[in-house]
Amino acid sequence: MGLVWGTAGDDSTRELSAWDCIFVGGQKMPGIAKISGSGIEHSIDVKKTPGKDGATFTDTGRELARFRIVLVLQNQADWDGFLSARSVLQPLLPTGKLKPQRVSHPAINALGVESLYFTRVGVPVPGAVVGTFEVELESLEYRATKNTAGAGTPKSAAKDVRNWERGGKGYAKSPAAVVRKPSKTNTGPS
């Protein structure tokens, strides 16, 4: 038993724009792609001091972008395309972990996002337009971690530097960190 398609996908004269298509791993996904998401956000740690107005803010870095992509399948060719493209959406690395995929869509790429993990491929459901089916995809931006210890500096060296004031291994105590006995000749301010 095949799917019953309406007349929504019968207009073969309609050309899709770049905004209607998404490429994942170099392969065009079938149907019309509708993209939504929260955009680019920075995580801000707000610290209030009890009894005082205002607060201090610490920018803890950019959050990973999340996108919701809905593929609107309009005909049997779109359905067959989805079935064959399904494996491209969530490929696994030899370790068994999810592999990020390069994506091409004007809205996503305009935010500087080039690769996504497809964290969820939804169940195809009848679409808002009679005779269509929709598949919801949820994705999370893939961004390689950056070494914040400094260019070319291994992360382990950053740990040593942080231990410097505490007299960490390989470092002499800073003069400010050395505890001195009170002077017997110091009489204080005159």
Helix segment tally: 3
Secondary structure tally: strands: 10
CATH class annotation of the largest domain: Mainly Beta
How confident is the prediction overall: mean pLDDT? 79
Structural class comes to: alpha+beta
Query: Which architecture of the largest domain per CATH?
Result: Beta Barrel
Tally of distinct domains: 2
Assembly level: single chain
What spatial form do the alpha-carbon principal axes imply?
elongated
- Examine the coordinates and then state which fold CATH places here, giving the name of the CATH topology of the largest domain: Elongation Factor Tu (Ef-tu), domain 3
Rg: 28 Å
Q: Catalogue the unreliable spans.
A: 4-8, 153-168
Largest sheet: 8 strands, antiparallel
Give the N-terminus to C-terminus distance in angstroms: 101 Å
SSE arrangement, N to C: EEEEEEHEHEEEH
Helix proportion of residues, in percent?
10-25%
Strand content: 25-35%
